# Entry
Amino acid sequence: MSNSTLTYSPTLIESQADAQLQSIAEKVVNSIRITLEDGLALYEKGTLGFVGSLANYIRERKHGDNTYFNRNFHVEPTNICVFDCKFCSYSRLLKQKDEGWELSSDQILEKLRSYDGVPITEVHIVGGVHPKMGLHYFADLIKKVKEIRPDIHVKAFTAVELDYMCRKAKVSYAEGLQILKDAGQGSLPGGGAEIFDEVLRAEICGDKCTATQWLSIHEIAHNLGMPSNATMLYGHIENFAHRIDHMNRLRELQDKTSGFNTFIPLKFRNKDNQMSHIAEVSQIEDLRNYAVSRIFLDNFGHIKAYWPMIGRTTAQMALNFGVDDIDGTIDDSTKIYTMAGSEEQKPALTTRELVDLIKATGRKPIERDTLYNVVKDYSLVD
Ligand code: V47
Ligand code: SF4
# Structure
């Protein structure tokens, strides 16, 4: 698929594109950052083929055919949550405790031990914001995880969880993050970002941390040497300008810190939540959104299609629309998207299955660790 002699002549698309799109293509070819107005124009006027070919051009310039995945599993300690995000199908309020779950430290460690001898490289720990599971409880848990599996990277806690646990423990974000880092936490996942626009945020998740707090926690983490991911919840009440604004705030922070590993667009899924009346966007829109994010976020190394959320087939297609990462094996360890109506009702793939999915698209499967160090190149293995 990739071609080292690939030259992308803007004249190839001249007949299809208006002057603004033409100038965006020229910027892309010349590695010049596109503006906010350009980003909006891509959403408003770019056809799927147009944005897809530009995004694929960037993807191949950065990574060739390399397509990354990892061996991971999730721990969701609880789905009890003090917050009430309207799009969330997964959480239960404390008063609905009977419908939720609360894992003890021992149960979590038992689950970890079930992977003894299995070459996973990452555990992803996120859940609801439980009033009784605080900073020191989690620091202790991480210490025990690292005692059992010092080789595993702990990617844990969204900025929403971190904001709550730091406030409750009466420590600054920097102090709280340092305690978790000292306990063995390696990085932060990208959740909780939703959409940064203040008006929309108040509408869909008004009671949790603000956009400014989310960005501040990630900036502090980066400065402490803890990298992170970033997400954007799309396909609900936002418009294209809100998406560009969201990505622009991430692009500006990445210019300052270079601490983001990957950007993960999260498609709003509408089963069993307070926003179920909103129809889900089409697969075409998913692909267009991956492509525009690849073009706009020039300083992000990776764009991830999270297969348990988008489904494995769309994830495969996304590999031609700017995406170079499809996340990991998961081992049926997360319920967030199962409960929100994803087509993946038992998200688990073996390494073999992931490799085959990637090979079927003509790309090179590369197992990575959390920080994108290459663990194994499967392109030469049958
Ligand atoms: O913040 C919740 C989202 C996020 C719904 O960093 C929903 O590698 C769509 O951030 N429809 C948590 N989205 C998951 C997350 C994540 C997932 C995979 C990998 C990484 C990573 C991060 O899930 C929440 C929220 O944005 N979410 N409900 C829903 N109905
Ligand atoms: Fe709680 Fe997270 Fe669900 Fe919001 S998205 S209700 S913070 S679990």
